[in-house]
Structure formats: C-alpha cells, structure tokens
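INFO  loader      accepted 1 record
INFO  loader      residues=334
INFO  predictor   begin
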Amino acid sequence: MLQRLFGLLALIALSAVISGCVSTVLEVDNKSAQPIPAKLVGEMSKRKMSPADPILVRIFKQESELEIWKRKRTGRYALLKTYPMCRWSGKLGPKKKDGDRQAPEGFYHVSASMLNPNSQYYLSFNLGYPNRLESALGYDGEALMVHGACSSSGCYALTDQGVAEIYAVAREALRGGQAAFQVQAFPFRMTAENMAKNRNDPNFSFWADLKRGYDIFEANKRQPKVSYCDGRYVFDAEFGADEPSDPLAACPPQPNAEGLAVATSFENSTGGVGTPAGSRAISAHAYSDGGMHPSFRKLLRNRGAKDLAKMTSVTAVPVSRPDAALADPHSANE
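INFO  predictor   done
INFO  writer      dumping tokens
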C-alpha cells in the first residue's frame, strides 16, 4: 500500500513538472477561445460596431505600433485601438530572403486558416509572406507572424495579452463572414515629411509605391483593392477580364484610374513625396537591429531584462496617437 502511495505521489510530481514546461491541449484551446475584453466590446458598441464587423490591420515599424481598424455601418473603417509593439527585427525595408531577419513590408491578407492557436509564442497569425508579388520577385521566407512573447526574428511581436486581444478581434471578424482581413505593413507613417526625410534611401521607390495604398486608405477610410503588375503594387484599378495574373508583366492598358486619382489628389493635398520646407533628407540610416516601442525601451533601460519579460501581461502603454488608444489603468512604467 505504501509503495502504491509513493508511486502515486511520484506520478503527480512528474505531471506537475511536465505541465510547467508544456501547455496542455486544454490550455491552448482556452488561449485561442478567450473572448474580446468587455471594455473593448463596449468601445465597439459606442462606435456603432459589432465584434462580427470586418477589420483591417496597419503596422508601422519605426513607430513600433499596430493598429486595429473596424468597419462601421457606413462602410468606412474607424480606428478601434493602437497596440505598442514589443519587438521587431531587421531594419526599415522589405523582407527579401529567408534568414535576413527582416520583418515584411507590404500588403497581405489573413484568412482563418492562418490563425495559429498552438503558437510557441502564445498566439499568432501568419501574414502570408511572400505574397504573389514577392514570390514573383524571388523573395523567400516562411512563418512570418504577428505573435506574443516580445521576441522577434523577422516577426512582429507584442505582449501576450496584447496579441490575445488582437487574436480574439480577428477571430470574431472572420467568424462573422469576413473571408480575410487586410494587413498593411509600412516602414513608418507615410506622411510627406517622413517620405522627404527618407527620399535618398535605396527603398524609396518601393515606399512611394506603398504610399499610394496608404493614401487611398487615409483619404476615404476604405480598404484598397490590391493588384500586382509591372513588378509593383497597383491599387484600386479595375482591370475587368484582364486582371493581371503575372505580377511581373506589364499592366493591362487603360485600367480604371479612379482610385489612383484619389491617391494622387490626397498626396497633393498633403505635400506628396516632395520636401516640405525645412525638411532634411536622410541619405543613410544608422540601424540597430530592429526596434521596440519607446515605452518598452525605457523599461528595459531603467529596470532590465527581467521586467521586460514580465511585460507579457501588459498591453496599454503610451503610443504616438494616444487619442486612438483605449485608456487602461496599467502602465509599463508603473
């Protein structure tokens, strides 16, 4: 009897050790099934949105911020919440090859099958890199994600709690009938001033291409239609039966240029990609590897890596657009 008791205790102890290292199926399922926080649902309601309404995601490397936009009854999108990114790797510029540690820049579409409830970085969703244009250009790489755990090697990392919120919002939008949500990943907020500062960067022509899609969304708060031809992105062009199938082939003639006209008009009204008075061009960047939101960097500098590791439970810290973020009693500096 005593031997059996020791055996049972040993089994319990072994189970406890294993459970400390490996998540059970139940724990994984609970993570991916967490509801949208009531406070965020309340914010949706105030803005005449529902959890089932479509979403759109924008990512900005330089500012280390991720935005969730939701479509209102008017058909236009409105900013729901801005999340600080804890870590991204590489430097400003597109990802071109596997192992370059670059986080992607471009336009992507995420379907339900790309949500990963079993991620080793808490929860995640795949960006879908490389897209058709990137594949045609010979770019390669795989498993480029938005995830938790505040660690990156070519991905966009948030806190665990932050990615849990985003995952829940995305899950409910996809369940509500959205086939895929668009992710727009930019090097920085593509203002005329930022474009002017970076006009001597080797990636400038690529960024000017992305800016057209950025400006269409900024102008009318509607998701731009994305096509590929002539080795570049083309936005809001209606090619009809001649929709380009080869991203590297010349664009079909006489596309509907309505969307491009909107973008051009908006560029002109905001200074386009010219040089505002007093701006100084930057010929080269002195990059460190990647970046993180300033609030996280301050905590790392003041308190060290141990406190940074604890930030997986923190979501709301100051962002560059505080009017867009929901108030939260927690702070990375408390």
